[in-house]
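Thread amino acids onto this structure.
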């Protein structure tokens, strides 16, 4: 047997297989890295961390949703209906502000006339120190993208889905978990380990936290005056504030939130909403599937409230809001919850 010939044939076969696989990924483009989705293919939304940048750069829209897992529960269909927009959801679970910033910045530079950004900020994002984009970058680019086995599998799934006439995914698919997962006090009790209380003093805001908020939120608002930013603070349950209280971080969070609100109110293209003083919402544990995450009906109510202008923080009521929030959470009887 001519082993040299066999070797070259084997190499040629491998090259052909890899080349055809790469060609399929390039043509299908499951993460939209090269182009907008083809109307002839039925795509799958399977990984926001890999697909969001392509969605931001190549989809057609005039509004968007940003944030982490606290924003995934927003249905774009409801958002579009209530605000009369055409939107995409660029939220990614467990994403830092740096990555959220990169998605929003890409959308604003995409050539779409972005009228509205709905950005849901949670306490983890607010209290994180500054993180560079490189540390949060999970996007596959170029050769790594078209040669990635997961991208090949995803491309095959798109082709199969198309051949069988299945409908393409919508952004509302992401909300399935939040709509179906059970909630209530028993569920939250099973997911929450309460620690002993520590002293809460008004702590100084870390410089890295200030840098994080300035670079990733404030500067985007400042540099894009034609776009209206709806900034909301995710209404976590009262159990989460018990965690803040017991960990000694409650007043640090409240001070950080207040500082960001006062800074953002300097800009005309900002609308800020907070639902923390809606005691009926945050203390009704049936609204929550764990101490942090609320069910999909809460997302819809927030859209309706924002459209009606309810729970908006302005220069006229910011002092009242901050004082009431400070008094409420520092004097709440957390022990009565357990």
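Threaded sequence (338 positions):
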């Amino acid at each position: 047997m001519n082993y040299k010939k066999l070797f070259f044939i084997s190499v040629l076969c491998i090259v052909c297989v890899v080349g055809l696989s790469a060609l399929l990924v390039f043509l299908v483009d499951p993460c939209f890295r090269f182009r907008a989705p083809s109307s002839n293919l039925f795509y799958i939304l399977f990984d926001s961390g890999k697909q969001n940048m392509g969605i931001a750069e190549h989809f057609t829209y005039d509004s968007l949703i940003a944030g982490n897992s606290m924003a995934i529960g927003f249905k774009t269909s409801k958002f579009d209906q209530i605000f009369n927009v055409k939107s995409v959801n660029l939220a990614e679970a467990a994403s830092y502000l740096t990555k959220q910033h990169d998605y929003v910045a890409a959308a604003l530079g995409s050539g779409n006339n972005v009228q509205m950004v709905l950005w849901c900020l949670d306490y983890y994002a607010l209290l994180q120190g500054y993180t560079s984009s490189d540390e949060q970058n999970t996007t596959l680019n170029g050769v790594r993208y078209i040669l990635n086995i997961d991208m090949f599998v995803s491309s095959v799934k798109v082709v199969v889905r198309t051949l069988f006439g299945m409908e393409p995914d919508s952004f509302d698919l992401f909300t399935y978990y939040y709509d179906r997962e059970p909630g209530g006090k028993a569920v939250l009790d099973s997911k929450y380990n309460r620690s002993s209380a520590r002293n809460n003093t008004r702590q100084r805001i870390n410089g890295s936290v200030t840098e994080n908020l300035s670079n990733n939120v404030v500067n985007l608002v400042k540099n894009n005056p034609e776009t209206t930013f709806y900034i909301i603070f995710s209404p976590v349950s009262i159990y989460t504030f018990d965690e803040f209280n017991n960990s000694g971080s409650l007043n640090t969070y409240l001070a950080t939130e207040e500082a960001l609100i006062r800074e953002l109110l300097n800009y005309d293209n900002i609308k800020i909403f907070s639902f923390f003083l809606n005691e009926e919402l945050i203390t009704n544990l049936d609204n929550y599937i764990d101490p942090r995450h609320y069910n999909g009906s809460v997302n819809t109510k927030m859209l309706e409230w924002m459209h009606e202008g309810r729970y908006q923080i302005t220069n006229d009521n910011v002092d009242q809001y901050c004082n009431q929030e400070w008094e409420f959470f520092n004097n709440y009887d957390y022990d009565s919850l357990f």
